[in-house]
Amino acid sequence: MDNILDDIIFDNYIVVGVSTGPDSMCLLDLLQKKTNKIVVCHINHNVRIESDREEIFLSSYCQKHNLIFETTKITSYQENNFENEARKKRYAFYEKILHKYHANKLFLAHHGDDLIETILMKIIRGSNIEGYAGIKKRSQRKDYQIIRPLLTQSKEEILKYNRSHHIPYFIDSSNQDVNYTRNRYRKKILPLLKKEDQNIHQKFLKFSETLLEYNDYIKKIIQKEIPTFYHNRTIDLNKFQHLDDFLKKNTLYFIMHDIYQNKNDIVTERHINNILKMLENKKPNLTLNLPQNIIIVKEYDKLYIKNNTTKKSDYKIELDDTLFFENIVIKKVKATEKDDNSVCRINSSHIKEPLYFRNRKNGDYIILKNSNKKKKIKEIFIEEKVPLSQRQNYPLLVDENDTIIWIPNIKKSKFCIKKEGKYDIILKCNEREDLYE
Question: Does the pLDDT value for residue 347 go beyond 80?
């Protein structure tokens, strides 16, 4: 085991997560033989009566061995999933300490048995190729690398090393609690596998590495194709639907991996399958909720990935020289050659001023230019395929009597004058350029 760190360059401070359990104390001992630039990072989860004693022990150990010791104590938990919340708080602390010491390597003590448990749990839960590979021996984050050198070792080998090198450690009593999913795999399933083959962890490691090779190849294909249909959290469904089903699924995993900042344990196979079912649905407007307040919105030939925010309140804004809305800008102009739906010419004697822009209300209708027929705004939005998310707050031009005069870029009323007519107000609608800067 002494040579498992031989391929690693120690040229700066490193951070190692140490819980005082046998695995992390073994890793710490191995690292001490390679470098003295070690920052020991300890999280007191504050859920066992032994937690404080373990923190005191590790503090003394680091002082004795001239190691930097950094610790934090979690005072409360808010989420229902303790394991998930504890993991998030651990990594947040690790990253804080990495930045403090300008370190770019984080060492963690996951071992071969952990890999087996993780792969089995992923298979039961459902995942993609990368997820089924379990724990990576090395994984790159934005500005640091996570290294797990013990992944090639079994738990038995670690305990044997600790005995032969007289390494002190503590046993976490919560590891015996079968209410935790991982502990059930560890206590009930892993012994059966090891009975078949004591080196089963090596087989699982080979399985993991093979899947990661396939995943890297698929990623290269996706990275080449994705710019043709995905931009700014929006998928062009006309182009996306031409992909092979296998690539569709893995592309969605790839996108979600990016949305959730490389946390691949949040979106499961069930979520991806629900997105694919949404795409197959003939309804033009659909919404799907994902974890952490993310929503998927299907609007005709586009799929949007958005943060779920509350709807905007009703508004009524008096006409000014320039008005900005979500994705358009309305300006008063002196002249324009255009006479399409992006332009509205008004004879102020035909309407009651002042003019306003407001959002849509139930029952709204417009008397259409040329036909003189009433038509509901809701029907027009459907026919013109206005995305559902834009309909409620789409600006409508009204006069003092609340008569709808113009739906910018979409329809004009009988109160809009032709270019050859008599008018004294010209309004022009353009896309907001600042959205594309």
Answer: yes
